[in-house]
Amino acid sequence: MGRYPKVVLTADRTLMSPYRGISLASFFGCAPALDFKRDHNTALYRVLGNQVTPRVLFDFICNPIEHTNGHANYAPYGLRKVESALLRDGYAREDVAVAHPDHIEKFIGPETEVVGTYEMDPLGMGPVTMTFTYGRKHMSYDEFYNRDLHQRINAAKARNGSKAKVIAGASGTWQYNYDPAKIEEYGLYGIVEGELGGIGPEIDGAAGQFFDAVSSGEFDTANPFKKSQFKVEIKEFVRNGRALHGRFIHYWNEPSVDEIPTIVSPSMHGMVEVMRGCGRGCKFCDVTLRPLRYYPVEKVQKEIEVNMKYGGLKNAWIQSDDIFVYGLNPRTTKNMQPNREAIEELFKGIMATGIEHTNPTHGTLAGAIADERLIPNVSKIIGSGPDNHIGIQCGLETGSIRLIGKYADRKLAPYRPDEWHWVVKNGIKVLNENYWVPAFTLIMGLDNDETLEDSWETIRLIHEIEMEQPDSKFTTTPLTFVPIGLLEKSDFYDIGNTMDPTKLGVMYKTWQHNFKYGIQKFMGRVGQNGMIKNWFFTALATTLGGVPLSAMEKFARRKGPDHERVIEKIKASYW
Ligand code: SF4
Known about the structure:
By secondary structure, the protein is an alpha/beta fold. The chain has helices spanning 43-48, 55-61, 77-88, 127-132, 141-160, 181-185, 207-216, 297-311, 340-352, 365-369, 374-382, 401-407, 420-433, 452-468, 501-519, 531-545, 547-559, 561-573, and strands spanning 7-11, 32-34, 67-68, 71-72, 96-98, 114-118, 139-140, 165-169, 190-193, 230-239, 242-251, 271-273, 275-276, 293-294, 315-319, 357-360, 390-397, 436-444, 475-480. 36% of the residues lie in helices and 16% in strands. Strands 5-1-6-8-9-11-10 form a seven-stranded mixed β-sheet, sandwiched between helices. A three-stranded parallel β-sheet has the order 12-15-16, with helices on one face. It has a three-stranded parallel β-sheet with strand order 17-18-19.
């Protein structure tokens, strides 16, 4: 290679995989990879060593993204935004590379000034991962491959004589505050944070200035008196009697829609954004701290066209924190009533590009049913049907009326907290009738305030839905509470050490639901994947799906009679 690029952007394998086109499989990075404490004298150790989820299986499902001479053909949407922002801000094309993680050494050389890594769950502390790894008792694949990426970057720097500064960005960087030893281990020059730490800053508004400042050494020292849109904070952490330091760079501006660049190269999974922020104000969520902005339809179309033209994509995955607030003003709209016309126009514009399939990433149940014509009309526009199910992630959060009222009352608007169970049941019914399948997430140990009765309410709600709507289609994923958003001063819910019997019950019930109603009944029919591929993954999931249930039963036996009684009660009354 001749001259090396000034800026190299990259992400680890778990974020740079098409997951063989199975959209639900992208959660697989949260799976446990290694158990360092496994007894060396066991048969399991002799077969698998430290591996929990066999690496060969993981690597098969998480297949590497295609590349062209080491340039990633598709990249996480956030990385594409930074790439296009740098080009907009005057960087030459040859000075910015989005590198495939397996080919990073081709791009890092003497001229490289900055390596920017995009990190969503770098230390495996995201809610799904914490659940699957019993609170980091195992190392997850997210962490495993992020570590692998940093090792490769450092090896490339050493080999090619590069002094490039490595900067970690994106929504998972808050995790370094909780394991600062990794900052040193990975040789990170800086970590980008938002004003309140937990927010992934919208650096695409000022990418040129930011990378210029990194290169020029402006961030080498903290100067609280210097006027700048970036603030450097050298944090000190004391761990095991040793002082550790990290350079955290804060950026808190929110670019207006006009200042947000349009991607110029294809994004992973055909993702495009239609909005930033969410006005619903759930206390446990950091998205809500951002001001709400919407893309006009033409801007969305331009990004889809880039994905179609340069990536051959036929799918548009619509990044939306709550698609049903698109086009409304949360300050002036009474009861968060959806702006149906705006949402319909948006989806008409999306389909007018010629793509074959689209689905929003997230939406609220209350928003979905607040206008009875909304879901039927949008479904007609996007062509949902028996062969084209629309997956959408919705926060069920909890079955507890008390908790939902206390932490997320506006998530229910225009309904009241005491109507929450009705909203959930009716939401599923309306979505399913129109061939939408909600993937629910629940929060275990919400603000460490979840009582035994709160957990039972969740278990009962899921069971009631199964009894009242036996053909309903939805999945449920329990996530452990992580202190972000307005609750960032709270403590993590420590699943590894404080799993009380009913929280185990919530996990057990949700997995039993997914196994019985999700995997066995409809997994293969969601999305638009090949028949054989769907059949294969459904068969794989059906084969492995019972394993977590047996593991939880074994765990309950180890924990004692209180845990066992909960499992027995669920089997007897809520199965
Ligand atoms: S509705 Fe979703 S995105 Fe909006 S604040 Fe609540 S949890 Fe966050």
